[in-house]
Design goal:
single chain; mainly alpha
C-alpha cells in the first residue's frame, strides 16, 4: 500500500461525509433506524480518535474535528437514549460501528489503489 497523502485522506473524509448525508436523508424521509445506527458508529469513531490521541500522547488525524463534534454526539446520545431502549441502542451502536468500520476499510482500500 502506498502512503496516505492529503488528497487521499481528504477523499476518504468526503466519502464518509457523503455516507452521513445519505443516512440523514434516509432518516428524515424513510426510516430513522439506519441513521441512528450510523450516528452511533460515527460517534464511536470520534471517541476512538480521541482515545488514540490520549494513548500516543500526541495528535492523530481527525482529532480536532472529533473534539468539535463530540458535544453534538453527546446531545444525540442523550436523545436516542430517551427514544430507544438500552438494548436497542446497544444493537444500533454495534451495527452502526460495524457499518462505519467496513466503510472506512472500503474507502481506504479504494483510495490507496489510485
Amino acid at each position: 500500500l502506498r502512503e496516505m497523502n492529503q488528497v487521499r485522506f481528504t477523499l476518504v473524509v468526503v466519502e464518509q461525509f457523503l455516507l452521513l448525508i445519505g443516512a440523514i436523508l434516509l432518516g428524515v424521509y424513510v426510516d430513522p433506524i439506519l441513521m441512528v445506527a450510523i450516528f452511533w458508529g460515527f460517534c464511536i469513531h470520534l471517541f476512538i480518535h480521541v482515545a488514540e490521541s490520549i494513548a500516543i500522547r500526541g495528535y492523530v488525524p481527525g482529532l480536532v474535528s472529533s473534539v468539535l463534534l463530540i458535544p453534538y454526539c453527546i446531545v444525540g446520545i442523550i436523545d436516542f437514549s430517551n427514544q430507544y431502549t438500552l438494548g436497542m441502542n446497544i444493537l444500533l451502536a454495534v451495527f452502526g460501528f460495524v457499518l462505519v468500520v467496513l466503510n472506512l476499510l472500503f474507502a481506504h482500500y479504494m483510495f490507496s489503489k489510485s
